[in-house]
Amino acid sequence: MQTGSLIGDLLLNIVVALAIVLVGRIVVRWLIKLARKLMVRGNMDPILINFISTIANVVLLIFVIIAALDQLGVNTTSMIAVLGAAGLAVGLALKDSLQNFAAGVMLIVNRPFKLGNFVEVAGVMGIVEQISIFSTIMRTTDNREVIIPNGQIYSGKIINYSARDTRRADMVFGISYDSDLRKAKQILTDIVTSHPMVLSDPEPIIRLSELADNSVNFLVWPWVNSADFGVAKAEIMEQVKLAFDENDISIPFPQMELHFNKSLTENSPAPKSSEAAEG
Predict the structure, then answer these.
(1) Please, which residues bridge with residue 137 across strands?
(2) Are 198 and 228 within 8 A, CB to CB?
(3) Nearest C-alpha neighbor of 18 from the set 88, 77, 65
(4) 123: helix, coil or strand?
(5) CA nearest neighbour of 51 among 154, 132, 147, 151
């Protein structure tokens, strides 16, 4: 009778444990689905939604499994202690990975950049194509794919060139002291104000900035849309060079002059020939 009762209790506990697992999985799935809907309504980042959903799903399933094991009479207290110790050991072994994980969470929460932004991080400049928990994938201007650990990104300087709709293209043009100052300024003004990518508001700045050692320098600061920055700057510099050449306005460049002392050259002894050296 006692053996049959024990077997009956064991079977009952197994059935209840299986029921806990099955029902628990259904409840967890429903809770995760509900949480995702609420986060979507709150306009949260899709990457953050996936991350929170994954972590919550794992944590809730662990609770379900512990509840099922407890129903079977397993000492879950000691199991939790073992899992905690194992988690600590794994954490120490995967310190760098956990650093990248934490940095990924901060990048997703704080959002210093988003997909499609042109940024400079960890010494790499390119377009952000994917942000995951451990790393970020970027595409450089020459179409290379670069995978950067999030720890390197978050611990360094982040420059987001796409964060603002407009950018100022800072340029400096130097002319020689012999060139016509007013004419050069008028050429710069005409080129900048007539360029289709240059914005009229804010108004571009063109002014004399420095009487340098070898040149008279002009600051040229036009505003453009961020997407047009590279093309607009290159076109303006090319047009300025061509216009200066057509109007005889020279752009100084570093030069080096060598002076020879004639007296030293004349008084230096002539090299001996090989025959004289042999004699």
Answers:
(1) 130, 147
(2) no
(3) 65
(4) coil
(5) 132
What per-residue confidence (pLDDT) applies to 238?
96
The residues facing 172 across adjacent strands are 219
Does pTM surpass 0.70? Answer: no
DSSP 226: G
Reported residue count of the chain is 279
Do 49 and 36 touch, CB atoms closer than 8 A?
yes
The whole-number pLDDT of residue 278 equals 46
The first and second tokens of residue 96, run together, are 């760098």
**What is the identity of the amino acid at 205?**
I
What is the identity of the amino acid at 26? I
Residue ranges for the chain with pLDDT beneath 50: 1, 274-279
- Pairing mode, if any, of strands 205-211 and 216-221? antiparallel
CB 214 within 8 A of CB 198: no
SS (H, E, C) 157-176: CEEECCCCCEEECCEEEEEC
